[in-house]
Specification:
It contains 25 helices and no strands. With 411 residues, it is mainly alpha-helical.
Length: 411
């Protein structure tokens, strides 16, 4: 989800920085002083004061801000409308609604946003008209406002914007249709898997996953071959969530993908599916050039019970990355491979305490507790704070070694 959020919010990042700077500036002035500035001769001062009062939540400014809705300056009117929306001034809804037809694009946009903030469902018909506005930013705001108002009756009009010339509008429309829960739009949304914009395609895959759109699995499967790595990664993840086990062969091909994130997701999905038929391909990934991919391959093989891969996993005990060595020894202990005892014993002197700790646990599990020196027992104890499965293994090993352990909260 994190990547999708970055895809969606990246275009407004600069705006967030500007708003943060504005917050710093407005904090230097008192509310009474800002209210007085609403009457200043300079339009820039009036606009700035209105903006600041809205951000500060100064409800006592509502009467004066309402007067500014009739200001001769468009930027001032827009700033006043936005502030009134932030302040929850429902009594201003009739006046703000008039601004949806204002000649100035910024005023129309701020008015639509304010009505969304105010929960003005009675204005839905008027806001819907803005979906056809010539200005893309206004169409974006209209979609967001209708979504915020829960205007499910407008999904036919929003659906038309899936063909909008502006990629951000198409993306916003997809997200709104999902939030509004209109499953009838799934076929139209699915068509955007062929959109020219990679951000749109990524969002569509994620939205189809959220919809639980199993009917779109064939098209999502095609997205595994998308030229954009994010789209491929999202597609693999969606197929995993949708339980598309018949696509295991196609997902397995992603183990050779050029993008490490895609390879990682492919491993995890194959593991989730219990895809034992993919064990040979996952085993090859133990030689991956990226450490965290090698580590996850070892983990997956352990959970798949891949005893046939034990020789290859044993080789990974010499990996240059400590996390990979840790996962390998952890898996070997779980798989019950006693032939690995000599190699595991060497890791009791590893530079990494977690590798030493897991080596000790594995040796106990393999019936070789006599090989665990007293000084390494302390390296097992930090693992008691790991997830319950790991903590249970650590606790059992310590008990076998004759160490009393109190129940500890997991981190």
């Amino acid at each position: 989800m994190r990547k999708l959020m970055m895809i969606l919010v990246a275009p407004i990042f600069i705006g967030v920085l500007m708003c943060s700077w504005g917050t710093v500036l407005m904090a230097e002035k008192s509310v009474p002083e800002l209210i007085q500035q609403l009457k200043d001769k300079d339009a820039n001062v009036r606009e700035s004061a209105a903006f600041s009062l809205g951000r500060l939540g100064a409800k006592e400014a509502i009467p004066e801000l309402t007067k500014l809705l009739k200001d001769e300056n468009a930027d001032v009117r827009g700033s006043a409308a936005r502030a009134l929306g932030q302040l929850g001034a429902k009594e201003a809804i009739p006046e703000i609604t008039k601004f949806l037809k204002d000649a100035n694009a910024s005023v129309r946009r701020f008015a639509a946003g304010a009505l969304g903030e105010l929960g003005a469902t009675e204005t839905i018909p008027e806001i819907t008209k803005l979906l056809k506005d010539e200005n893309a930013r206004i169409r974006l705001t209209a979609i967001d406002t209708l979504n915020r108002l829960g205007a499910r009756e407008t999904t036919p009009e929003i659906t038309k914007l899936l063909k909008d010339e502006d990629a951000q509008v198409r993306l916003q429309a997809v997200c709104a249709l999902c939030d509004l829960g209109d499953r009838e739009t799934i076929p139209e949304i699915t068509k955007l898997l062929k959109d020219e914009n990679a951000r749109v395609r990524s969002a569509v895959v994620s939205i189809l996953e959220r919809f639980g759109a199993k009917e779109s699995i064939p098209e999502i499967t095609k997205a595994l071959n998308d030229k954009d790595a994010n789209v491929r990664e999202f597609a693999a993840r969606a197929l995993g969530q949708l339980g598309a086990k018949k696509d295991i062969p196609e997902i397995a091909k992603l183990l050779k993908d050029e993008d490490a994130g895609v390879r990682l997701d492919a491993i995890r999905i194959l593991e989730r599916f219990g895809a034992k038929e993919s064990i040979p391909e996952i085993t090859k990934v133990l030689d991956d050039k990226v450490a965290f991919v090698r580590g996850d391959a070892a983990t997956a093989l352990g959970r798949l019970g891949a005893k046939e891969s034990i020789p290859e996993i044993t080789k990974v005990l010499n990996d240059k990355d400590a996390n990979v060595r840790r996962e390998a020894v952890r898996v070997l202990g779980d798989l019950g491979d006693k032939e690995a005892i000599p190699e595991i014993t060497k890791l009791l002197k590893d530079a990494d305490k977690y590798v030493r700790g897991w080596s000790a646990i594995a040796l106990v599990e393999l019936g070789a507790r006599d090989k665990v020196p007293q000084e390494v027992i302390a390296d097992i104890k930090p693992i008691l704070k790991w997830i319950s499965e790991d903590a249970a293994r650590a606790r059992a090993a310590l008990k076998e070694l004759g160490v009393e352990v109190e129940e500890e909260k997991k981190e």
